[in-house]
Design the sequence.
């Protein structure tokens, strides 16, 4: 008898593209080309089929990001306040009760990983979930339930700016992968942009 896999709960997807890009010479990292297309396009291609609510957090170049989704959001901070600002804005504006969060500089993250995060959260009463790559936490490859919004707002007003610290304080579940898994590489410098292959 074939066992049916339960359907995963619906989710929104947030692509974080609002950084300063300091290690990329100040360039808007999500729009830098990697093997023929912008970094943001790689993640949009993985994420779009699993959600009808794709958001991009960007603080500049909105007209260029609009090619990938009509759901552009800004974190409301002109001083590039960091990824937690984008996550805060995304949780406040997403249409579903769960928000998959992805950084634009990790283009090798696959749909399989994203669905594994969704399944991990669902298996733990819809708690937050995040990737742990060997001993390295990856808070910007994570799933956030909207039920965290009030707690996140309170933490933000109290000065919290670390996604990892917030997630661990709220019993986020780790999704473990081995340290040699190359799908979690971050393209943070021009050298990595040219050296890493898909």
Sequence:
């Amino acid at each position: 008898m074939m066992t049916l896999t339960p359907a995963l709960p619906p989710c929104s997807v947030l692509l974080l593209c609002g950084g300063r890009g300091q290690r990329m010479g100040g360039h808007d990292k999500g729009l830098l080309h990697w093997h023929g297309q912008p970094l943001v396009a790689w993640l949009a291609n993985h994420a779009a089929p699993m959600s009808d609510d794709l958001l991009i957090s960007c603080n500049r170049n909105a007209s260029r990001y609009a090619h990938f989704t009509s759901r552009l959001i800004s974190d409301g901070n002109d001083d590039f306040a960091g990824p937690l600002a984008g996550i805060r804005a995304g949780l406040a504006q997403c249409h579903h009760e769960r928000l998959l969060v992805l950084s634009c500089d990790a283009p090798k993250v696959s749909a399989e990983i994203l669905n594994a995060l969704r399944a991990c959260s669902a298996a733990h009463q819809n708690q937050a979930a995040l990737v742990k790559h060997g001993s390295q936490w990856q808070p910007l490859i994570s799933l956030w339930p909207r039920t965290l919004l009030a707690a996140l707002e309170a933490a933000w007003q109290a000065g919290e700016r670390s996604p990892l610290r917030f997630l661990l304080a709220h019993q986020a579940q780790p999704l473990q992968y081995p340290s040699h898994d190359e799908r979690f590489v971050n393209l943070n410098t021009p050298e990595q942009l040219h050296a890493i292959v898909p």
In short: Helices lie at 39-47, 62-65, 83-93, 111-123, 149-157, 163-169, 190-195.
